[in-house]
Each structure stands twice: as structure tokens, then as C-alpha cells.
Write a structure and sequence with these properties.
Length: 354
């Protein structure tokens, strides 16, 4: 009887709570539940009627994720699917537009990959420092509710989805990296040193660069600000140089792989990007270092500086030597794009599951 009662009590509790971190950036959308990780470009496109869906040669290449979603805001191809298949594509470098026109679609696309229907969702996300006060309440209002939408797979099969986001917590974006360093997977402090020190965080995103100070895990208003010194500024310089040489306007979001690989092929011709990229990154790093060194001039007692964000790994070699202070080394192979979203999820566990 006790066993039956225990089983009945468990069944009455309903599905387990799902704690996720979501990071909707100008360049990429990221989500994790602590186990699964999804990342895709923050690009939306008109859904094309794909007439031929089979690979021409079996096993020729792995099929990319098919992100096709219908919400009350419209129907979209999302991410790399939009980039490769949509005639009309859109992305934004405007924070107001990101929140009003992109946020919900990108968030539901991300969540649909890691959360099952019927599971209560508690979500932690972040905003750039300069947009935090203006958009925090609006972001919660748009996300904290039940969402009905549909996803369409690569065969064209439509599945109705329902997700209940029962709680949303918004934090200043760079603190995701601090929580990722400080907390373990069960939300407990694993590095007591970071919890007692003064840490400067430089979070280089696609459009913005955020600078903040964590003083024994407390936010410093004096040492925090956002600028438009994201990697898109360097990409604009690279795109301008390519236009001069090729006559083609390369969309900024199509430069990620090219910059990483050091070259790009345009209409059959290969263009070397190493010198162009080094020049653009050096100029951006100098701009960021000048801003940070001035901002933190009175914070001479900072113990260490962390460079993070989607542009962090690329900029670190150019930026580290220009900063005044001890800079923590970016680990080889580390995907700094995921530092904030991993920290959001760990902070959610710290808040709600302990």
C-alpha cells in the first residue's frame, strides 16, 4: 500500500521541471538544458516549397538540421536552412527589432529541440547591459506564458507543439560567463576563488561588446557598459574589402566560416582573408582595449580579466596584450559563444532546483 501511495503521489506531481538557458544573440541563437546544446544563426527566411527533398547521393553529407516553424508571428525557415533555401532572408543588428520581431520565433525554435511538450519550462536568459533596463520586462512578457506553434520536418510533416514557460529570469548578459566559471552542473559554487575575487568580464558579441565587473559576484554599475564594438564591425571592414576586389556584397552572417578558414570563394575565385582579417581584428581590439582601460581606470584592484562571447576567441590574441591587468587565457578549442548560455542554465539550476 505504501508503494502504491508513493507511486500515486509521484504521478500527481506531473512532468519534471525543465531548466534551460537561452541566449538570443544578433549572430547566433543558443540553448542548453545542461545536457543538450543547440546553436544556429539568428537568420529568418521565407519558407520555400522544396520540391525535391532527397539527397542525390546516399551518405554524401550529413543532413543539416531542418528548422521550419510556424507561430502566430508567421512561418519561417530558421538559421542555416534560411541561409541555404530562402529567397528572402532577414537578420538584424537592431536590439528593438531583435526583441519585437525575432525573439519569440528564435526562442521557440531553440526550445523545440530540447524540451518535450507538457514539461514546465523555467528559463534564464540575458540582455546586453545598455539594453537591460529598457527590454527586461518586455522580454519576460513575450516569453513567460504558454506558446502554441508548429514545427515542420524535412519531409514536410507538420507537428503541433505546446510549451509552457512558467518562469523567466533575465540577467545582464556577461554574468552568464561568470556563472559558467563559478557554478558546476548542479548549481553549486565549484570555484570559491572566483566567488571572492573581483573579475572583469569582456563579452564580445556580434553587434555589441559588454564590459562588466563582478565584485564577489556582485554587479558593478560603475564598471559596466555596452558599446557597438562587436565583431560585426570587423566583418563590415572585411566585407568592404571583398566588395572592392570582387564586386559582390557578402552578407555579414556568411563570413563566419570564411574568417575561421582564412579564405572565401566567390564565383569560383578564392580570396585570401588572413591579412584582411588580422587588420580588421587588430583595429577592433585596439578600440575595445582603449574603452576598457579607461572604464576600469579606478578599478585597479581587479584580480583577473575574462574574455568571452562569440568574438572572444577570435579577438583574444589581439586584445590580451593591450589590456591592463591579468587576462585569463582562452582555452584552445573552447567555443566562447556558449559560455553565457551554459552559465544561464547553471544559474537556473542554482535558483530553482537546489
Amino acid at each position: 500500500e505504501r508503494a502504491a501511495a508513493s507511486k500515486s503521489s509521484t504521478s500527481n506531481q506531473g512532468p519534471a521541471m525543465h531548466i534551460v538557458g537561452v541566449d538570443i544573440g544578433f549572430g547566433f541563437a543558443k540553448v542548453t538544458d545542461g545536457k543538450q546544446v543547440e546553436i544556429f544563426k539568428s537568420v529568418l527566411g521565407d519558407p520555400a516549397d522544396i520540391q525535391f527533398r532527397e539527397s542525390l547521393i546516399d551518405g554524401a553529407s550529413e543532413r543539416p538540421p531542418h528548422r521550419h516553424i510556424e507561430t502566430e508571428d508567421g512561418a519561417w525557415f530558421v538559421g542555416e536552412l534560411a541561409e541555404s533555401q530562402s529567397r528572402g532572408r532577414t537578420f538584424t543588428l537592431d536590439q528593438d527589432k531583435l526583441v519585437t520581431s525575432f525573439l519569440r520565433t528564435l526562442t521557440l525554435t531553440a526550445l523545440s529541440a530540447v524540451v518535450e511538450d507538457g514539461t514546465p519550462v523555467r528559463l534564464v536568459t540575458g540582455l546586453p547591459i545598455s539594453y537591460y533596463r529598457r527590454h527586461k520586462d518586455e522580454l519576460v512578457e513575450r516569453l513567460q506564458k504558454r506558446h502554441e506553434f508548429a514545427v515542420i520536418d524535412h519531409q514536410g510533416v507538420r507537428t503541433t507543439r505546446s510549451l509552457n514557460i512558467e518562469r523567466v529570469r533575465v540577467i545582464p548578459q556577461p554574468f552568464g560567463t561568470m556563472f559558467n566559471l563559478l557554478l558546476n552542473n548542479v548549481g553549486r559554487a565549484s570555484d570559491r576563488r572566483l566567488a571572492t575575487e573581483k573579475i572583469g568580464i569582456i563579452d564580445v558579441g556580434f553587434k555589441t561588446a559588454d564590459y562588466t565587473i563582478s565584485n564577489k559576484t556582485r554587479y558593478s554599475e560603475r564598471g559596466s557598459q555596452s558599446t557597438d564594438a562587436g565583431v560585426s564591425k570587423a566583418f563590415k571592414g572585411i566585407a568592404a574589402a571583398l566588395h572592392e576586389k570582387s564586386g559582390v556584397n557578402v552578407e555579414l552572417y556568411r563570413l563566419y566560416d570564411a574568417v575561421s578558414e582564412g579564405s572565401i570563394k566567390i564565383r569560383g575565385r578564392t580570396f585570401d582573408l588572413e591579412k584582411i582579417t588580422a587588420h580588421a581584428m587588430q583595429r577592433l581590439a585596439t578600440s575595445i582595449a582603449t574603452e576598457v582601460n579607461q572604464l576600469w581606470a579606478d578599478d585597479w584592484d581587479i584580480d583577473s580579466i575574462v574574455i568571452t562571447g562569440g568574438g572572444g576567441a577570435a579577438l583574444a590574441p589581439y586584445l590580451s596584450g593591450q589590456l591592463i591587468g591579468q587576462v585569463l587565457e582562452v582555452k584552445a578549442g573552447e567555443d566562447t559563444r556558449l559560455n553565457n548560455v551554459r552559465g544561464y542554465q547553471k544559474y537556473g539550476v542554482h535558483l530553482w532546483q537546489r
